[in-house]
Design brief:
It is a single chain. By secondary structure, this protein is an all-alpha fold. The protein has one domain. Helix content is 75%, strand content 0%. It is elongated.
């Protein structure tokens, strides 16, 4: 289980800097979705789509958790893969369950995030991450 959550990371400095840059750019862009949901929580809690049968308010809370809390984990590289599992699931719901019959244009951004987060899951966090600092330096 430890190897799944904190896989060995043998990247060189340049690759790790690139992964850090992607985490920062994509993470900062993505976290704005969570911030917007937090700011509009009262309004959204009654109308948020209940796509997985948990109720509107709980679905909104889980979406905020993925888009804000887990994105902080993605940016910092802390509990990186665990954070990405929640984010990927959230983007799967947004891409394939929220508007499955909508045009590609309406699902494009959610699908783009979905694919980028899947790639980043397999790429791992790199040397410049809290997971590397706490869990891998000792190896």
């Amino acid at each position: 289980m430890k190897n799944f959550l904190f896989p060995y990371n043998n990247y060189d400095t340049r690759t790790s800097i690139l992964l850090l840059a992607v985490r920062l750019v994509v993470g900062i862009m993505f976290i704005t979705n969570g911030i917007e949901k937090i700011e509009n929580f009262k309004t959204l809690s009654d109308t948020f789509p209940n796509l997985i049968g948990l109720g509107s308010e709980l679905s909104l809370i889980l979406s905020i958790f993925a888009e804000f809390v887990c994105t902080l984990g993605f940016i910092t590289g802390f509990l990186y893969r665990l954070s990405l599992i929640a984010i990927i699931f959230n983007m799967f719901v947004a891409t394939f369950l929220y508007a499955p019959h909508s045009s590609f244009h309406h699902r494009e951004l959610a699908m783009l995030y979905f694919v980028v987060f899947i790639f980043m899951f397999f790429a791992k966090a790199g040397r410049y991450s809290l997971d590397f600092l706490f869990f891998q330096k000792k190896r």
